[in-house]
Amino acid sequence: MAHTDSAPGDTGTSGNAGTEEATTAGGHAGPGAVWIVGAAGQLGTALTRRAPRGIGVHGLTSADIDVTDAASVRAALAGLSAGDVVINASAYTAVDKAEEEPERAAAVNTDGPAHLAAVAEAAGAWLIHVSTDYVFDGPAAGSAGNGVAPRVTPYEPADSDSVTTSPTVYGATKLAGERAAVAAAPSTAVVRTAWVYTGGPDSPDFVGTMRRLEAARDTITVVDDQTGSPTYAVDLADGLWELARRGPRAGSPTGAGEILHATNAGALTWWEVAQAVFAEVGADPDRVRPCTTDEFPRPAPRPAYSVLSPASWVAAGLTPLRDWRQALHAAVSESSVSGSQVPESPASDTPESESEVTEDTSVIDDTLVSGDAQ
């Protein structure tokens, strides 16, 4: 377990005050200690590096905690105190593999948040649980959508209220995990995000993969019928720190938590993301060719449209994440200057990943099929 009493933080890039003291305009004194579960993943690493000064940070990796085991969770969080914050950046994110081992996916994505929430509730701490755009049940891309027209309106948090099950095991277990966490700790804040990346040349995420393929191949082909919002891990981390400093939602007699959506602004397809990456590194975007999801079927269906509305985030008094173009430019330029800024691969710590941002790409010959990074 990594612990720092006063994390230095990096220079702010997202518009959120990642290095400010732990106070808010509303007078909340900020959190006590912050416990980051999944600290070796992309998001967990970004959270650790972006920690505001003056906050004690406990980073928990899979070597420190097994979220599927209630006893392990209790032991790892034995030092949790009232006023502390637990940020759960852990998840089983292998979308296709989850179809083959739903029990394992459920243990991590459903039981894990429930165990964390129960311990947080007992200690008087607050859980921030990171979730995904895959919880919704909109039409799938390609023929898996059965001819249903794709959604064109960004999802609001309440749109999940009527969802009984997601089309994928991964999404279904994540939705169940949200509900289990809130049931165990009603003050839990659920933060859904999507298409998260770090973007370094060695990063396993979609942007990093595009950078490597640009250097290795003349052309690549990327799906152009899946629409979402790419989200820079640094920006998401800064947003989560702002939320942690703000504290639990006030004014609710029941102490009910909230569901928030946090992505960089804008919506585009994977093909458009790939073209933008090529442009950022000075390559010809026309070297990226579009294809359909049907051309490369996968075990788990992919949503045709999974854009998340930022309205809930703004209504909560939080700083909107910047436009995806600005974020991508920052990610590519910053990682090009200093390779040390690239987080370690989640796969180096656990096969199931400790992050919402594990790459799930398939390259067949010269074709990149897709990149799932929730």
From TrEMBL:
Residues 1-29, 332-374 are annotated as: Disordered. One of its GO terms (biological process) is dTDP-rhamnose biosynthetic process. Its EC number is 1.1.1.133. Keywords: NADP, Oxidoreductase. GO terms for molecular function: dTDP-4-dehydrorhamnose reductase activity. The gene is rfbD. PANTHER family: DTDP-4-DEHYDRORHAMNOSE REDUCTASE, METHIONINE ADENOSYLTRANSFERASE 2 SUBUNIT BETA. The keyword NADP applies. This is dTDP-4-dehydrorhamnose reductase. Residues 351-363 have a biased composition (Acidic residues). Catalyzes the reduction of dTDP-6-deoxy-L-lyxo-4-hexulose to yield dTDP-L-rhamnose. It is an enzyme of class 1 (oxidoreductase). Residues 333-343 have a biased composition (Polar residues).
